[in-house]
Write a structure and sequence with these properties.
By secondary structure, the protein is α+β, with helices and mostly antiparallel strands. It has two domains: 101 residues, Roll (T-fold), CATH 3.10.520.10; 74 residues, Orthogonal Bundle (T-fold), CATH 1.10.3980. The chain has seven helices and seven strands; from the N terminus they run αββααβαααββαββ. It has a four-stranded antiparallel β-sheet with strand order 1-2-6-7, covered by helices on one side. The longest helix has 22 residues.
């Protein structure tokens, strides 16, 4: 992580700058979308170097979560779970398990309208290449879409899929979780006024120093 932040600082020191007297902002690509952070540093703590460090930490955190939870990266923890959980119980990190618990609660509250197992068919689509599965493939995979087929062992942070064809995708909540995590980083730096967004997920901290 320290090496990643250091490498980010090399580029940030050239291109990051205060957008006004004490506001700093930076836009970058991560998690398959465009992310944006801006924050206020008071005159006592105002420093381009400090702003660069904070921005680098934000980028590193977003990239860390992308590496862990992307269904498109073969080495991600989520991809590993998708490959193995249909065959056996799999131990996952506390962070991923917590997100799966949250997803289950949202599925229950929405009577299944929100369902991370949509990926059981969703992974067969490639919208950029305009590829969609045949009806036969869709019909065959439909039984795998059922959030109730995800079995969570709360005691040991273990996960098992009842259906071997089940796959999950946390795209519906992963970005929201990521920006919440980034907001915590900003707060840990004593920042009281900030905006953090990724795609359509946005969290505001305070205001724009007395303005909306």
């Amino acid at each position: 992580m320290k090496k990643l932040i250091l490498s980010l600082l090399v580029s940030l020191s050239v291109i990051s700058f205060p957008s006004s007297a004490q506001w700093y902002q930076y836009t970058f690509d991560t998690m398959g979308t465009r992310a944006h952070v801006e924050f206020f540093l008071d005159e006592k703590h105002q420093s381009t170097k400090r702003a660069d460090l904070i921005i680098a930490a934000i980028i590193a955190e977003m990239n860390r979560l992308d590496e862990a939870m992307s269904p498109y990266k073969e080495t991600s923890e989520l991809s590993l779970l998708n490959r193995q959980a249909g065959l056996r119980e799999v131990a996952v990190s506390e962070e991923l398990f917590s997100l799966l618990v949250t997803a289950e609660k949202i599925s229950q509250m929405s009577a299944g309208a929100f369902d991370i197992t949509y990926a059981s068919i969703g992974y067969q689509y490639d919208y950029r290449k305009k590829i969609r599965p045949h009806k036969g493939s869709i019909d065959q995979a439909l039984p795998a879409i059922n959030y109730k087929s995800i079995k969570l062992n709360v005691k040991d942070n273990m996960v098992k899929f009842d259906n071997t064809d089940t796959k999950i995708d946390l795209g519906g909540i992963a970005k929201g979780y990521a920006i919440e995590s980034c907001i915590k980083i900003l707060q840990s730096e004593g920042i009281k006024h900030a905006l953090m967004s990724a795609c359509r997920d946005t969290i505001l901290l305070g205001d724009r120093n007395g303005r909306d």
